[in-house]
Design a protein that fits this description.
By secondary structure, this protein is of the alpha+beta class. The chain folds into three domains: about 80 residues, no CATH class; about 110 residues, Band 7 domain (Tetrahydropterin Synthase, Chain A), CATH 3.30.479; about 60 residues. The protein is built from seven helices and ten strands.
Amino acid sequence: MQEETLARTTSGYPMLVVLPITILTGVAGAALLGAIAAKIFAVIVAVLACVCLAGFYMVAPNEGRVLQLFGQYVGTDRALGLRWANPFYTKHKVSLRIRNFESGQLKVNDSAGNPIEIAAVVVWRVVDTAEAVFEVDDYEDYVSIQSEAAIRNMATSYPYDDHEGESITLRGSANEIGEILKAEVQERLGRAGVEVLEARISHLAYAPEIASAMLQRQQASAIVAARSKIVEGAVSMVEAALDQLTQRQIIELDAQSKASMVSNLLVILCSDRAAQPVVNSGTATG
């Protein structure tokens, strides 16, 4: 793999002074000198100085210039400001700034086979300009395609939700999934000289064709969980009531009375509706 090396270039400011003076001197010499040889020499000097003007280029902050001489990699210039190098160098600009890539909403199947829609944001930057330029054809296009491929692969490896007791899920383990996605994207983009700074899921939902059924499933799971909590609390309250009645000796209950009391209390505590008072008016006798 082609690794980045620093190019040997010079500041453009001294050359900005020297070259115009050289051009003016050559033009003036060609006009004023009498000998033909001297005029030819002055013209050649002026032409060469004009050619050297092509060696100027600018390097902005967080930017690099990949230099090539007739197809051969010479090095990368990261020095800021006005620079000058061999005018025959080709100078390819590569941004080193942090960038965001947001994938479209991809439709895939999770590990349980449920169709879902998922999208993610990948934060990245170029750290090796030589690899970015020479190892792949178009590193920006490479980032987008490989990021989407990594998102698809990650989404098919984990379930959307925790229905089967899975430890990591797409919906409930955002931090863990983000780190897994970051590692997978980095593995794919490392060969292009790209560093992945962060990867996060930006959109996650069931596909429209199963969204309604999954919503009912989630609601049923929530109802069961709530009922379990209610029953657990009701049993604790009934137990506490029986213990207090026994300790304070308010009333003595036999096994049948305790069972009837427990049944009534559980019905009252676990019911969706408030208890309705019943007035016992006694037994009617004729």
